[in-house]
């Protein structure tokens, strides 16, 4: 468990900010249902992100672009029912906050009300996104930012590529992160950026950074639960460390079940009424 929060109390935005002040690392996982939410926080996760990565992980889509507000609400509500302690953050999907500040407020408010979540997350760091973040935080909606590689912009970025290699890119990312902080974001995800850039961004901010493929100097780290468990065994990015290899266990268990059913060994007398 994170040392700054009681094991029985709900993690809050203030707790997240306090972690950076105390130099304590934050732990976030992406999960999409009640069971994995409960297991994640029992394992020590401080935050659970209901990521629009559910498009790839759960729905079998090629990108996060097709995910809808309704789908995020469906999975977000399930996670909130399973998480008694972790702070739950829900991704705002593509085009739910980019069109106008009014759209952003309306959709963020709906997500919060219909899921019982504690915060939303948005991608990007330009002035328009900052204006939306400012409006949401003024309305009482905590917001997590997300810069670097932003999956909703995969078509513009030309695929899943590390961002911020050029010197001017580092300056841009620092500026975007500060813009998010000034707009009221309580933390910022840094995805697929060089370690030195992530360190520069982290040092420039008062709010915590949470890295994925961004090196060790971020204030916290996030991985998709299916990835760290080795369930998604076809996904092998450089940044991923697997803490289990459950894909083989799942295949093996189903194979043994299938063998027992076909051989008439299941159900047996012990498992029958």
How would you describe this protein?
The protein has 273 residues and is α/β, with parallel strands linked by helices. The chain has eleven helices and eight strands. It has an eight-stranded parallel beta barrel, surrounded by seven helices. It is globular, with a radius of gyration of 20 Å.
User: Spans of 5+ residues with little confidence (pLDDT < 50)?
Assistant: none
Task: Write down the secondary-structure element order.
Answer: HEHEHHEHEHEHHEHEEHH
Strand order of the largest sheet: 1-2-3-4-5-6-7-8
Q: State which percent range the strand residues make up.
A: 5-15%
Terminal CA distance: 42 Å
CATH class of the largest domain: Alpha Beta
Q: Tell me the CATH topology of the largest domain.
A: TIM Barrel
User: What structural category do the secondary elements indicate?
Assistant: alpha/beta
Could you name the CATH homologous superfamily of the largest domain? Phosphoenolpyruvate-binding domains
Write down the domain tally.
2
- Compute the gyration radius: what is it? 20 Å
CATH architecture of the largest domain: Alpha-Beta Barrel
- Number of DSSP-assigned strands: 8
Note the total helix count.
11
């Amino acid at each position: 468990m994170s040392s700054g929060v009681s094991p029985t109390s709900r993690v809050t935005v203030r707790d997240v900010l306090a972690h950076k002040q105390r130099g304590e690392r934050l732990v976030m996982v992406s999960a999409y249902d009640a069971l994995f939410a409960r297991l994640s926080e029992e394992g020590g996760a401080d935050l659970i992100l209901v990521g629009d990565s559910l498009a790839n992980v759960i729905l079998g889509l090629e990108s996060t672009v097709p995910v809808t507000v309704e789908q995020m609400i469906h999975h977000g509500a399930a996670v909130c029912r399973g998480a008694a302690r972790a702070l739950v953050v829900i991704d705002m999907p593509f085009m739910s906050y980019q069109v106008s500040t009014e759209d952003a407020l309306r959709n963020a408010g709906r997500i919060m009300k219909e899921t019982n979540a504690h915060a939303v997350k948005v991608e990007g760091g330009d002035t328009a996104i900052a204006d939306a973040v400012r409006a949401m935080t003024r309305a009482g909606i905590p917001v997590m930012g997300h810069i670097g590689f932003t999956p909703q912009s995969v078509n513009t970025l030309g695929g899943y590529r590390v961002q911020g290699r050029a010197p001017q890119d580092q300056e841009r990312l620092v500026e975007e992160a500060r813009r998010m902080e000034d707009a009221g974001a309580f933390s910022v995800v840094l995805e697929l950026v060089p370690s030195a850039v992530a360190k520069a961004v982290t040092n420039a901010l008062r709010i915590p950074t949470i890295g994925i493929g961004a090196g060790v100097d971020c204030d916290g780290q996030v991985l998709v639960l299916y990835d760290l468990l080795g369930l998604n065994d076809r996904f092998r990015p450089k940044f991923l460390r697997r803490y289990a290899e459950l894909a083989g266990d799942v295949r093996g268990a189903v194979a043994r079940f299938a063998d027992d059913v076909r051989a008439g060994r299941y159900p047996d007398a012990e498992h029958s009424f």
